[in-house]
Amino acid sequence: MLARLVLSLAATLAHTAPAAPDSxxxxxxxxxxxxPFAEALAVERDRITAVGSNADIRKLAGPRTRVIDLAxxxxxxxxxxxxxxxxxxxxxxQTEVHWIGARSLVEALERLRAxxxxxxxxxxxxxxGGWVERQxxxxxxxxxxxIIAAAPDHPVYVQLLYAAVLLSRDGxxxxxxxxxxxxxLKVETxxxxxxxxxxxxxxxxxxxxxxxxxRPPMALQVAGTRGFFxxxxxxxxxxxxxxxxxxxxxxxxxxxxxxxRDRALTxxxxxxxxxxxxxxxxxxxxxxxxxxxxGFGDAWLRxxxxxxxxxxxxxxxxxxxxxxxxxxx
Length: 329
Fold this sequence. Notes:
Layout: H1 2-14, E1 23-26, E2 29-32, E3 35-38, E4 40-44, E5 47-52, H2 54-60, E6 66-69, E7 74-75, E8 79-81, H3 86-93, H4 105-118, E9 125-128, H5 144-150, E10 156-160, E11 164-167, H6 169-175, H7 179-182, E12 186-189, E13 195-200, H8 203-210, H9 218-234, E14 237-242, H10 254-261, E15 268-273, H11 281-291, E16 301-306, H12 322-328
Parallel strand pairs: 1-6, 2-7, 8-14, 9-10, 14-15, 15-16
Antiparallel strand pairs: 1-4, 2-3, 4-5, 10-11, 11-13, 12-13
């Protein structure tokens, strides 16, 4: 009896075919480390299980295998961006006007005009960076008159890197910039001494100005996080190291954690936390690290320790006195 059972089990195992891959990618150029290009690869769940020729990989497919025809496209390993403020970008991605990839100022302003047509009257239109003058054929920044003409019924905020912001007249009034912040911003004027709408300052001043904008509701923060991560996926990015930084209080991470709990992350995230309160850094870090030990998380989301803004006073030396310079020697 036992012999028949062993023989039966052996026969069953001998005729059991390996599981077919979930997906195969064929007719492409698959980059391999220190080896020639392959033509195709197979994927089972989240693992690459085989790399080889079109013919060999096609043999692995089963009736439910998804076949992706690359049509000559190149497959590369996922890229990891080692310093990107992806979490912050995701919070407002859904409600911003994006100038990424716009080849002319005309195209950029048309995107602003299109957004103005569908946004509720009086709501903010925000371009939170993602562009430089050199990408436009005109080779210049927009003017206040141009953004007002594109969106006359909306306050408009256009940020250039961490260096400058253009506000419409309604936008300037709506931000109600306090005196302490205004003293750290430079008002650009034209040849006649009139304000152009452009304000410049260091990254801390620009960050504080951005903080005065209304935050989207939680649902849009979650949708924006998903949308921005998908945009990064389209650029070949599959992992990020996010250093935290300005504009990132602890509750700003709620949207990221919601997407993680929903098992909807499409990018692996290693994130850091910064000091949320000026003058209370040590107490805050002691509380944070007590409940968030280094390495907390899983394969998709992991706590990476203290981030780039370790202490607020680290950035108070933009104009040191002679005495301070001597003390630092």
